[in-house]
Write a structure and sequence with these properties.
Distance between the termini: 46 Å
Shape: globular
Largest sheet: 6 strands, parallel
Helix content: 25-40%
Length: about 575
């Protein structure tokens, strides 16, 4: 069966925090060397996951084989940290001496921006001979992310990432998403935006850089250089696909990147109308891009309006939208962090919160990334988009209990699954009507799911099932929704370093759900109520782009119509 490729688009700074964890998780689950042999395939030891769905083979300028994520990334240039714009796979030393001498001859001042120092974690990996995405600026070593590394090297790498006395705390040294990024990117994957050509006012936005919806919309619609680069990169990765499933868009919707995501989605719908678009709409609450302090009320109002405009536009062009946040309230003025019983995370650290969301995405996308899967991305988006409901709610159990067998655990749950919602404004209770649901349980090889302490006389239908897939399907379709797809996967979540230490228990097993239900009614109602309290005329940065109040009112009315689709009446 030919590979069914997916192109990932990361748009926004917090999206790249999530993306860095996501690619780390992918790479730590790779199977190298002997596991790819035909003999091992016959023995059933081949990896469950088809890595070619998200990764691509290529060659460097020196002819070395590479295996890199099929991704296009957009962020502000100031947010890259020590990551080079061109990556390290195609890095060639640049001799600046000629230009400097020429500048001196014509009395031209040369200003060199200070380089961000590579943090101890990346230095440690580099010193161990591991290929990392970030490298010191004076390094002239060719680093190759080989697809065919020796087994011993991979084993040593995983051992190093797992059992090391670092001598430092990752929480203290992560200031950028590149500070914990392990994989290498293709040199066409990264596009950066320099703030100065867009709007002078954007430079002064200390709390929310690139902070107006229209700044992103204008940059990707009228900024010729940015738009051409963006379209060229997407064409490059898309045209090499043989059987592309669609696009996985991860974007910030509370900033100017929401406008960039909308313009991208419109262009994709025009050029590839048959390809579906799965949009993970991130709404980070306590995320700050500077150490200046709290967001003031005006900045929060900007975020609220940005979110309304982004959701309204994306509902017209995308196939399915998953609003994601660890804030249980759909508001940027109040915060109530999600409570995972066995997780201890710092909600003010994007390094922490993004790891939880990345774990969800890694598990949620498994149905259309498995070697033996009969599902595609369009299967999921098509089944969940019903009755005009373009927004779906999501939940997660992390970690999934491992103290009992699977049938015993689900029997104890009964009609109250121990799931925590990742959709803002959506409660964790089960007082809702679900018309369709996709459920993934992964990491079954981490514990003996066949065990049972239930006496034979008390065993129910779940205990009569012959395998984990049957147990999960029976439970989901009985308790949650008859129109549900349940997928049981053996592969664990690879939560080795640099995944943050947010739990004292292993995080290898997880359950995720994506559902079409009336749960999103409160979310949409709340963000509409929040925007009603805002006087847009007091937000001058919107007015600079010619934004009119009527545009916001029209967006609100369309969201009212959308919310009617979720009403019980």
């Amino acid at each position: 069966m030919s590979t069914r490729e997916i192109l990932t688009l990361q748009i926004g700074n917090y999206s790249n925090y999530v993306g860095a964890h996501l690619w780390n998780l992918q790479e730590l689950n790779f199977s190298y060397g002997a596991s790819n042999n035909d003999e091992d395939e016959e023995n059933g030891s081949k990896s469950e996951i088809d890595n070619d769905v998200l990764y691509r083979c290529g060659r460097t300028l020196t002819g070395d084989e590479t295996y890199t994520p099929r991704v296009v990334i957009c962020d502000l240039s100031r947010n890259l940290g020590s990551l080079k714009h061109s990556g390290v796979l195609y890095d060639t030393p640049i001799d600046y001496s000629t230009n400097i001498n020429r500048n001196r001859e014509f009395n031209i001042d040369t200003v060199e921006l200070p380089r961000v120092e590579v943090n101890p974690f990346l230095k440690e990996l580099e010193s161990k001979g591991l290929d990392v995405a970030c490298a010191s600026g004076d390094s002239d070593k060719d680093t190759i992310n080989d697809n065919i590394r020796d087994n011993d090297e991979v084993i040593n790498a995983e051992k190093h990432l797992t059992n090391t006395d670092e001598g430092y705390v990752m929480d203290d040294i992560v200031s950028y998403w590149s500070d914990y990024l392990v994989p290498c990117f293709h040199h066409r994957s990264l596009i950066t935006i320099n703030e100065s050509p867009l709007s002078v006012s954007d430079i002064d936005e200390e709390y929310l850089p690139f902070g107006v919806f229209h700044s992103g919309l204008s940059a990707f619609r009228y900024g010729c250089d940015i738009r051409e680069q963006w379209e060229d990169r997407i064409h490059y990765f898309t045209e090499e696909c043989d059987n592309q499933q669609g696009f996985n868009i991860i974007c910030d919707i509370n900033s100017g990147f929401g406008g960039a995501a909308l313009e991208t989605s419109r262009w994709l719908a025009d050029d590839w109308p048959s390809k579906c678009q799965l949009v993970s709409a991130l709404m980070p609450f306590d995320y700050r891009n500077s150490s200046s302090g709290k967001l003031n009320s005006i900045d929060k109002h900007y975020q609220t309006v940005n979110t309304i405009l982004s959701l309204d536009g994306l509902c017209e062009t995308s196939s399915l939208i998953l609003p994601l946040s660890l804030n249980s309230l759909p508001s940027f003025t109040k915060s109530s962090n999600r409570n995972f019983p066995q997780l201890i995370y710092n909600a003010s650290l994007p390094y922490h919160t993004s790891s939880i969301i990345a774990s969800f995405m890694d598990s949620m996308t498994l149905p259309f990334r498995l070697n033996t899967s009969r599902y595609s991305l369009s299967d999921m988006t098509g089944s969940l988009y019903s009755f005009g409901r373009k927004l779906s709610s999501v939940s997660m159990c992390l970690p999934f209990p491992q103290s009992q067998g699977l049938a015993d655990i689900l029997s104890d749950w009964g009609h109250q699954p121990r799931l925590v919602s990742l959709s803002p404004g959506v409660s964790d209770d089960n007082s809702y009507v679900s018309s369709c649901q996709w459920v993934v349980l992964r990491g079954l090889n981490a514990f003996d799911w066949r065990l049972t302490d239930t006496p034979i006389s008390e065993q129910g239908l779940l205990h009569k099932c012959s395998n984990s897939q049957e147990i999960l399907e029976l439970y989901i379709r009985t308790v949650m929704s008859p129109r549900s797809e349940a997928i049981a996967v053996d592969t664990q979540i690879a939560t080795k370093r640099p995944f943050p230490k947010i739990s004292t228990s292993p995080l290898h097993v997880a359950m995720t759900t994506v559902e079409c239900s009336n749960r999103m009614y409160n979310f949409i109602s709340s963000i509409i109520d929040n925007v009603k309290l805002i006087n847009v005329r007091k937000l001058p940065k919107f007015l600079e782009y010619g934004f009119e109040v009527d545009e916001l009112n029209e967006a609100v009315m369309r969201l009212y119509d959308l919310n009617d689709c979720y009403s019980d009446k």
